[in-house]
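Case study 2.
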Amino acid sequence: MKTVTFILLLLFVLGCAQHEPKQEPAHNPQVDSIQEMVNIAKTAKELSLENRKSYLEQAEQMALNIPKDTTKLEQLAKISLAYLRIKDSLGFRRSNRTLLKMAEASSASKILGYSHWDLAIFMEVKGVTDSAFYYYRKALDNFEELPSDSTSQSLKGRMLYNMARIQDSYKDYLGGEISATAAVKIFDNLEDNYRLYNAYNMLGVLANGMGNSEKSIESYNKAKEYLIKSDRTDKNELLWKIQNNIANIYTNTGDLVKAKETYEQLLSNQDLKTKLPGTYEKALGSFAYSVLKADADVERAEEIINESFEVNSATGDLYDRARLHYYYAEILSAKNDTTRAISQAKEAYAIARETYNNDRSLDALKLLTQLDTNNASAYAQEYYELDEAISEEERTKRDKFGRIRMETDDIIEENQILTKEKQVWAYSALLLIVFGMGFMIIVSLYVSNNQLKFKQRQQESNQEIYNLMLSQQGKFEEGKQLEQKRISEELHDGILGEMLGIRLILSGLNEREDPASVEQRAALIEKLRELEEEIRTISHELNHASYEKFHNFIVSLEDMIDGIEKSSGITCSFNYDKKVPWDNLLGDIKINAYRIIQESLKNCVKHAKSKHVSISFQSMEDNKLKLTITDDGVGFDINKKRKGIGLKNIISRCKKIKGTLDIDSKPGKGTTIKITMPVTYVDVETSEKIDLINV
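Prediction:
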């Protein structure tokens, strides 16, 4: 009995030693100094950015000299977040990379989670939302490894909510609903009323995106209930925003009587105009539209819309101004003032295109086809082309996001499998150790002279277990790479082979003399060729080597140009200025430049019938880049040629990066496209930081 008691006592002590960290001194002067410098960097806005960065750099050096890993990582995490708060992109990326490596080496799941969270915020601020989703998911995975308590559960819920927001932006409404619902369950268990409001509000947005207005209103009302229960001091302002969202649903579903009543109730709040002028302006404009449609009171609607324009001028919301011009066009049309109505609709369209408000652009074009009968066919054609271009862009965006989400899910699943394997090995090792310790104690009571030999055997056994664990991990990584290669080869050789066979069969059918059949089959063959290219792209992206090149801008361009060369038969020459740090260019510049080159090459293949294309990407004075694309194709008369979708896309993308476009072309003389664009690198802040840190 004494032996059993001793064993149990020993195991208890070992368990405590494993899970109970050593107590830090109440006050650590080194940590106090670091925190003081971090606070100065974050709060001292009167200091220059360089001075604030200097404080963080000093704090970082001090943190790296802290001997205890846990304390070191905690301080480095605070410093990395501070870099993000002061908008020092380079400082944040450097410190974040360092922190991630150290946290991974120490298996510090909580620090890893916070670091991935910070990186997700950074990516979202920069507009790289697919990467932001990836890192939010990584953070979620890290937080799931923590012991289940209120803190870890709250962190998981917040990551799920952030993922739902991004899924909504990609119109992945079903996936967003799954994420937001999971967040609701967590926050409900925690009785976190404010975050329950956020999650239900997001469910309302997602349901509206899916066209389920009833469920959307239900979710918004649930959000209101939890917001009222919360201790937020700004709950009135948030309630007004929800009410405006509900009124918008009534407007979009055509229930304009309820919409008018809801807007009227919202606008009766005396403080709305002063506290939320943006919401006030939006509600006022929509109220004018509902008065027009529900009451047919044209004069009152015009009076209200004019007040909306005054408020909009003060807020400077150009995006929403397109909506006001559209409503005003509707009002003037009801007054039979067609000339002014057309003018307002054109203004709505121009502003909508300038602000990339796609839905409003289509609405304005549709209205113009009704108002301007002389040019109705031209507006209808423009509507069709724009709708096609928007659909294609959204489809590409969704496909890319879908691949990232799928890859993220696969990685998480693999990590979960690996974690379970590690747990099995760990439990096995623990059982063996416990058994060995018990056996050692029992044997030592009877045969003390065998103790040394037993310890040696135990060490050998532990080493063998450790070697097996390393071997298992190596085999898993090897298997993962082999599986990636297998999928890539299967997709390339199997599916593409079958599609090629189908194309050959269809080619044989073209021997029929029926012109309609021949034309139909030719179209099908072209579609199959496009599908082949898409699947080949997916195949390449599955390859690990391609993934490594994902962030290499020049390599990506070379791969794309090489692919078009091989598929089309044209020859391409590509030269670029090697002194330019291409990978440090702002993401918008890289994306749009890539698409411009891609679109130009497609035009050379489909329309210009070019044999050779020259592409040059060079630096200029005044911090600018010059992109030149020259082909030897048939050319065209730029004064007579209507702009097709391809050229319009190039013009649109050029505007996005604030570039200037010059096209030189003549029939039979080929075409030269010159684009001059201002350069922005990642260390230059070009976008306002959104408030995500405290979400």
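Residues 575 and 616 are 5 Å apart (CA to CA).
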